[in-house]
Amino acid sequence: MGVKKDKMSVTQLTIITAINMMGSGIIMLPTKLAEVGTMSILSWVVTVLGALALAYSFAQCGMFTRKNGGMGGYAEYSFGKAGSFMANYTYSVSLLIANAAIAISAVGYASVLMGMELSPLAVGLWTIFTLWLATVLNFGGARITGRLSSFTVWGVIIPVFIISIFGWFWFSGDLYIKSWNPHHLSFFTGVSDSIAITLWAFLGLESAAANMDAVENPKKNVPIACLGGTIGVAIIYIVSTNVMAGIVPNLDLLHSNAPFGLAFALMFNPLAGKIVMGLMVISCFGSLLGWQFTIAQVFKGGAEEGYFPKVFEKLTGNGVPLLGMLIITIIQSLLSLMTISPTLAKQFYILVNLAVVTNVIPYLLSMASVKVMQKEEHVNEHKSKITNIIAMIASIYSLYALYTAGFEAMMYGSIVTFAGWTLYGIVSYKYNKDYEEVK
Fold it and tell me: What is this entry's stated membrane topology (predicted)?
């Protein structure tokens, strides 16, 4: 009985899964969706189906696998150590890029809150300052970071829930219809232009299976929590962004660095807008704080596997991978300078698309390994057929997401991915049987 009390219920795991996905992914969404108009709701439908297929497949992978290392462990079934390395490497890079995008979100909301007009260079410099501040605050260790992050995430969740429930009192059907396709895009272009940003909002769904040891009856409850969390988040995303499109004119959303603040200012008053902006800055920074520590831990895990340099393994007395954090933040600072763009929103989307491209690589490697994994683990044949079909749907969606990210993101993402093969060539001797025997 004592063990059962320590286990999470399916409801608790579903909530944790949903919160992991929400984070700060939503706060700049309405501005990007305004480039398409309210027809972007069709992109949500496509992405929700793709995200559900991915969530279900990852839930099954989490239960079938006997290998450690998350997506790296899944990829190893089909692609060996090379696949495991590439999944770990591209996932690590995607987190590194995503955090720079989260920092830009915080800068965008803070600049509107303070009434500041920032030049492109100033956006880059403030982003770098924000990243370094989050890194320095992480020197205190995991416990402080964890407490702050679990508290600050409500700065996003509360405003999103309020606008989803009460925003309908300010909703204009006429405004929503006028905003359907304001830029006269073709149907395919309209749907495709929003796919990458809507997938960005779901990144983290792969972490849902990580808590399977902490939940009651994982074989039944992990898939329920994965799918339930994804559906719950999907409803919140779709409702909040579409309600907002019926409250704020499309052109105003399109040019806003703080769309949720703008919506609350129109619904209530400018003070309410500023309070929401403040909450979202705090939430963004809390998310950044947690993810900076998580990225350092991911690189540390990769170093322990022999994938990354040993420097990422080194810990301070209170268990902080300090040197790894400093190297990661230097890379993010360079990335922030390299992607400086005419507008803050443009720089944010460049990073988002690049993060999506690099994150989709381990998704594809994992989905391609599902069939082999099930054969090796002797999964029931009927159940494995269903999972294989769903994994194939998830793969097709992932390939479509790569296409919609655009040529620039694909080009840079490809260079980063191909560089991974070079890096694997340097460390691959460690996984050679002859080397192991000599050793």
Answer: Multi-pass membrane protein
Q: Please give the model's pTM, rounded to 2 decimal places.
A: 0.89
Beta strands in 270-420 (DSSP E): none
pLDDT band, very low/low/confident/very high, at 210 (cuts 50, 70, 90): low
Rounded CA separation 121/338 (Å): 11
Quickly tell me which residue has 């770990």 as its tokens. Answer: 88
Asked whether residue 438 is assigned to any structural domain, the reply reads no
Count of structural domains within the chain: 1
Domain harbouring 48, CATH code = 1.20.1740.10
Give the Cα separation of 115 and 346 in Å (integer).
Answer: 20
- Residue 8's DSSP bridge partners are 215
Residue 1 inside a domain? The answer is no
Give residue-wise pLDDT tens across range 99-145. Answer: 999 999 999 999 999 999 899 999 999 999 999 999 998 887 766 66
Look at residue 434 and tell me if it is in a domain. no
Contact at 8 Å (CB) between 329 and 127? no
Length of the chain (residues): 439
Predicted local distance difference test score (pLDDT) of residue 146: 67
Has residue 113 been placed in a domain?
A: yes
Side chain identity, residue 107: V
Q: Which residue type sits at 85? A: F
- Per the CB < 8 A criterion, the answer to whether 335 and 104 are in contact is no
Other Cβ atoms closer than 10 A to 396:
13
Question: Mean pLDDT across the stretch 194-208?
Answer: 85
Domain of residue 28, residue span:
8-429
Among candidate residues 390, 410, 392, the one with its CA nearest the CA of residue 402: 410
